[in-house]
Design a protein that fits this description.
single chain; alpha/beta; 7 helices; 5 strands
Length: 195
């Protein structure tokens, strides 16, 4: 079986309760995570997120300066981070009702460190998978755009120089090989040379 390369992730813990923060720092310091940063308030978390991207933001609500629900929604909708909220069992269902559609996961207290750690691992895995999918989509979009540009250049050669479609295709390919550039670059030159 091939060895899998594990990407190091950055975690932001937002909690006004030092005991919770210390516990999470201990639990998450197993070498799987590159950086585990702790902030004690929503305002400090917002400032931190302006400075650095985090893979997962763990919010222990309520916070000292706000309940924390708005922070979770803001982070989930603004930043490329997974958001995990830990809330008391009395309010966890209400919180989940407010934030789940924004992609926020809610766990009810009391919660074991093992459950939080597992949830963070799953969030990191999902984010990694999403990032790979986004890269594939961008690559496909770039390839489709290149095909469109090359086709427009071929049609220009057909219309203006009387080439057949095969001749235009070979002409663009030969110029690209001769000059060691992409077909797209040749096609853009052909299209740019239009009167």
């Amino acid at each position: 079986m091939a060895e899998r390369k594990t990407r190091q992730h950055d975690i932001l813990v937002v909690s006004s309760y030092e005991k919770f923060s210390d516990s999470m720092k201990r639990v998450l310091s197993d070498g799987r995570y590159r950086d585990v940063c702790v902030r004690k308030s929503a305002s400090a978390a917002r400032r931190e997120l302006l400075e650095k991207d985090y893979d997962v933001t763990l919010i222990n609500i309520p916070l000292s300066d706000e309940p924390g629900v708005d922070l979770a929604i803001d982070i989930a909708s603004t930043y490329p981070t997974g958001v995990l909220v830990v809330a008391s069992s009395e309010i966890s269902e209400d919180v989940a009702e407010k934030v789940t559609d924004d992609g926020v996961i809610v766990i009810a207290k009391p919660v074991s460190a093992r459950v939080v750690k597992r949830a963070i691992r799953v969030l990191c895995a999902l984010l990694d998978k999403l990032k790979k999918s986004e890269k594939k989509v961008l690559t496909l979009e770039e390839k489709m755009e290149e095909i469109r540009i090359v086709n427009r250049a071929k049609w220009k050669l057909i219309d203006e120089q009387g080439m057949s479609e095969d001749e235009a295709h070979r002409h663009i390919g030969k110029l690209a090989m001769d000059r060691c550039v992409s077909k797209r670059e040749i096609a853009e030159e052909i299209l740019g040379n239009a009167g």
